Each structure stands twice: as C-alpha cells, then as structure tokens.
Amino acid sequence: MDRRLLPLSALRAFEAAARLGSFKAAANELGVTPTAISHQIRGLEAASGVALFERQVRRVTLTDAGVQLYPVLRDGFDAFQVALERLTQPRRRPQVVISATNAFTVKWLVPRMSDFRARHPGIDLQLQASDEVVDLRSRGVDVAIRYGRGPYPGLVTQPLFTDHFAPVANPRLGVRSIEDLARVPLICFDWKRVQPENPTWERWFATAGVQDLSPAGQLRFSDEGHAIQAAVAGQGIALLSQALIAEELAAGHLVRPFGPVIDGHTYHVAVSADRAPSTSAQAAIDWLRGQAQGKSG
After folding, report:
1. Which of 62, 102, 164, 290 could be cross-linked to 297 through a Cys-Cys bond (beta carbons 3.0 to 4.6 Å apart)?
2. What is the pLDDT of residues 99-116, one digit of tens each?
3. Which domains does the chain have, with CATH numbers?
C-alpha cells in the first residue's frame, strides 16, 4: 500500500481495539462511538483484504493477521509518544554527582561550588558525602574522590594532590613550642583504614624526634570534621590536613605554631572503568584538577 494512502485513523482505531480487547473501550479512549470504530476497522479489513478481528458477543479477539499487525502498530505508536514527549518536555539540565568523604566535601568541595557554578552555569553539581567506599557502578555516582595510595580496581584514577599534616591550634591557647604539648590535650581522629603511612600523632612524634613527653590527655573523634571543629573551638592541638583547614588558617582561627609537616595520602579523582565520563562529568573532572593546582597545603 502506498504510504500516502495509509488509513491512519483506522490504524489507530485497530491498535486501541486490539490493546483493549473491545470496540467500546477503544471508542471511549479515542472519544468516538463504537460504531465509528467498527466502520474504521471494517474499512481497514477491506483495504487489506484480510480479517483482523473475530467478533464475539461481548468482546473481540485478533485473527492471525491481526496478531501480526498489532505489535507493529503498538511499537510505532509508543515510539511516536516517546518522541513527542521528548520534544514537548523542557530539557533537563545535566547533573554530575561527586562522591567524597564527609570532611573533604564540607571543607574542600563546598567552598568551591560557587566557582564551579560560575564556570559551568549549565551543569548542576550534586555532592554525595560518605566515609564509606561508594561503588561507582551501582550508585549513580559519576565521579569519586579517593584518598590513599591505591590501586583502585575497576576505576580509572588521576592524582589531584598529596595532602600534608601539621600541628594546629586556636591561637588563644598560646601554644608556641613542642614543650607546650605537655599542657594541651592532643586531638585525634580515627582513620577508616589502619595503615602505617597514616599521618597520626605517633608518626609525627617519630618524625619530630620527640621522646619522653607526656601530652595533657587526649580527645578522640570518629570523624575528621569533628576534630577540626574541636581544634577551632580551642579544645586542644590537632594534627590536621592543611588542605582541609586552609580557610581556618587564612582567617587566623587556627595557627601552625611549629613543625614538622608530614605527608598524608594522595587524593585521586576516579571514574568507573566500565564507562567513559559524560561531557558534563569530564568538565567537573577538569575543574577539580584545576582547583587542586597549588591547593595541596
């Protein structure tokens, strides 16, 4: 049959009747009378030369010819609907989900979000803070920040920067020398993974060559962010990431009274090896790397 002569109204009537199993139900859906549906389908049967329905008292069933025709029309009309909805619905803004630890999210990412918005106003950035390792293949995360030495199986990673740790305190405590540790509590936090390279007070004391010094107690937190808050509040002296407390150091809320400074781990930006990052995700990765330049503390 010539495409220009296709009886579109009759085909639409047939699809609805076949899907609903009733001329009356098809008529209700299409806003016409059952008689109109019956006439359109009879006209289609006459034009094709085959019977499409077996008429029964209260319902209709498809003939073999009708069974062959129905899925073609159903899929076609579904495709029309999807395409039209895509055209008429407002386009969704691209979104990039970045997963990072709680402390890194709050202290490093959040203060920089305004810069990302200024550079990429058409991309929405969503931050997912968690100290648990997130599986990029199953959690809808586009980019993750990993902290450690690696390797990271199943991920493609690029280094952002290596962190550095040093003793810091609220200037009101008057800490000026290592000897002052004998009168000020040490603020500590728990590392999620115990490794000999972790920048702990034990490692710092060994690097500084400090022996026979007993600090005035210890405050221990399960979260690095809480340790930062305790140091700002003047609760003691903390061995903290210089990258995560850059704002507090610049504002004078914390001071670094003495060294040495020891290396921490390296922050990496990671994506799943199973799929290439989208254009928006790659823009976020490039932005992260740009922000990391000279931001290692």
Report:
1. 164
2. 999 999 999 999 999 999
3. 3-88 (1.10.10.10), 96-292 (3.40.190.290)
